[in-house]
Amino acid sequence: MTSSQPRLVVFPAYDGMRLLDLTGPLDAFALTNDLHASDASAPYALRVVTVDGGPVRTSSGLLLLTEPLAALDDVAIDTLIVAGGAAAFRADSNIVAIETWVESQGKLMRWIASHGSRARRICSVCTGTFVLAAVGLLSERTVATHWESVRLLGNCFPRLRVDRDRIFIHDGPVWTSGGVTAGIDLALALIEDDLGSERALQVARVMVMSVTRPGGQAQYTIPFAGSLSDHDDFAALHTWLLQHLADDLRIEELATQAAMSRRTFMRSYTVAIGRTPAKTIETMRIDAARVALEATGKTLKEIAREAGFGTEDRMRRAFRRRLGVSASDYRLRFSLRDRSHVAMRAAIPGPTRPD
Length: 355
What we know:
- It is a single chain.
- The radius of gyration is 23 Å and the shape is globular.
- An eight-stranded mixed β-sheet has the order 3-4-2-1-5-6-10-9, with helices on both faces.
- Residues 222-226 and 339-355 have low confidence and may be disordered.
- By secondary structure, the protein is α/β, with parallel strands linked by helices.
- It has helices spanning 19-34, 95-104, 106-118, 128-134, 150-156, 182-195, 197-206, 235-243, 251-257, 262-273, 277-295, 300-307, 312-323, 327-334, and strands at residues 7-12, 44-50, 52-57, 63-68, 79-82, 121-124, 142-143, 161-162, 168-171, 174-177.
- The longest helix has 19 residues, at 277-295.
- The chain is built from 14 helices and ten strands.
- Helix 5 (150-156) links the parallel strand 7 and strand 8 (161-162).
């Protein structure tokens, strides 16, 4: 490819895909073209394709016009980006539903497998990772997807290494991203890879967003304590913990509450819950602090004490380690008391990253 030839970025589309998964990255590339002096020097050519062309209905019901796959038969694709959104990829789905969906999209899947293997880069937005995995383009790769579907992806495609928190991941020619708006973060990273950080920053400014978003997906989830009710053997203990987070919670006290010896409790709890008691307590404390940061005007010192961290510094380190942001930055983004200082928060329920 010479410097005068635009990079061809192709978006395969299908009924039921999420609109913003496609239009977010698409607009980032289009704005990059707008920043060039003329169409002749535009760095990207953008195409949206379906099997036969024509309208495709997104999950929101909006119709998009597309070109047929055949329009790209003899064209070299630089970057292939697959959107997510299909119902088969939601957290409550299973491998049978995914296989049924893939079979129903046979011609498109074969086209993605063939052209994706020859493209310079293959990318996915949100649960579009499932599409690339299903056609065999992600084997042994480290990938990202929407945090709600991380477990499903790992269970259905065990040869993948799935990172539950990253906004996007670059592993060789494969770029994968987390939920919905993370597709824009991905596009900015691709633009930076192609054209440099200055151009990516220009596009980010036009889009009124950070060129690199701080933190990971964990900060956008809501408290996980409700999911603990699924574990009947320790439900009473979890209820007690939520009422005593500010206490000095030693293993001996927890074992007493569970009516077990210390050794039996540690072994039984870790097997049943999938994490140590210490991880559960820290997650509960982080969630309690998050709620206070969002909904109250209490000082960080007060919140740290009441949530059981003891000091601001211990709370800050826990937030950095688990959410990728400080407690004060979290408040600036998500406080319900002063919406003028808040970035939009994803409103999809799910668990805080437990480990």
